[in-house]
């Protein structure tokens, strides 16, 4: 019985030490891992939608707490002013969630550009939402309060041929960004003033 207790105690101590080391490594590298994910997944999209910005939106970002979640806000500097932010939203596509970054000018609430970050859509059909500049260009210049629906649903957005569900997912993601932006706009403006 004493032998079994010593074995149990040894396994418990080893488990506690291993768990503590793993937690320390995770905490020590979490920020670097997050930056690498941002750089390689969202970075190319940010460069595209913030074309002409005088800064690096990846380094000029901040987080805003919303309930239990934190929202990443990427900042773009145009004409010497921090007047554009990008938020990410998600919509339901044919193959799962579609992540979309939406850049918004905070002075007039106009969309400066959108870009798909993540998706599981069908190659050659829904996957074109990420590469088709004509599809993403139709959102530029609209206000964040505009209704975002495909024409089949009574809206003004031309769906990708053969990928109406994907197009609806992109519209849904933009709508989720619109709702988050309207809730967070005062906090976003305050953070931008603090960083000025």
Major sheet summary line: 5 strands, antiparallel
- Within the largest sheet, what's the order of strands? 1-2-3-4-5
Order of helices and strands: HEEEEEHHH
Roughly what percent helix? 40-55%
Structural Rg: 22 Å
Task: Tell the overall outline.
Answer: globular
Q: Structural class of the secondary elements?
A: alpha+beta
Rounded to the nearest angstrom, the distance between the terminal CA atoms is 68 Å
What's the total count of β strands? 5
Number of distinct helices: 4
List segments where confidence is low: pLDDT < 50 over at least 5 consecutive residues. none
Strand content: 15-25%
Number of domains: 1
| Average pLDDT for all residues | 88
Structure description:
This protein is α+β, with helices and mostly antiparallel strands. It has one domain. It contains 4 helices and 5 strands. Strands 1-2-3-4-5 form a 5-stranded antiparallel β-sheet. A hairpin with a 4-residue loop joins strand 4 (97-105) and strand 5 (110-118).
List keywords for this structure.
196 residues, alpha+beta, 5-stranded antiparallel beta sheet, globular
Write the layout of secondary structure elements.
Layout: H1 2-49, E1 61-66, E2 69-78, E3 81-92, E4 97-105, E5 110-118, H2 128-131, H3 133-137, H4 164-195
Write a concise synopsis of the structure shown.
The protein is an alpha+beta fold.
């Amino acid at each position: 019985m004493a032998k079994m207790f010593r074995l149990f105690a040894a396994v418990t101590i080893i488990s506690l030490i291993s768990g503590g080391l793993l937690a320390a490594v995770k905490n020590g590298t979490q920020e670097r891992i997050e930056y690498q994910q941002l750089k390689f997944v969202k970075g190319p999209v940010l460069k595209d939608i913030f074309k002409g910005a005088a800064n690096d939106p990846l380094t000029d970002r901040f987080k805003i707490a919303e309930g239990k979640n934190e929202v990443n806000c990427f900042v773009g500097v145009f004409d010497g002013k921090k007047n554009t932010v990008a938020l990410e939203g998600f919509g339901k596509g044919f193959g799962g969630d579609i992540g979309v970054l939406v850049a918004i000018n905070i002075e007039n609430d106009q969309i400066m550009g959108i870009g798909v970050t993540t998706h599981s859509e069908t190659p050659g059909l829904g996957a074109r939402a990420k590469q088709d500049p004509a599809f993403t260009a139709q959102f530029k210049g609209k206000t964040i309060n505009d209704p975002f629906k495909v024409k089949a649903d009574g809206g003004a957005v031309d769906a990708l041929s053969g990928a109406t569900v994907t197009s609806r997912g992109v519209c849904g993601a933009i709508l989720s960004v619109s709702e988050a932006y309207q809730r967070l706009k005062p906090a976003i403006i305050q953070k931008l003033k603090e960083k000025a």
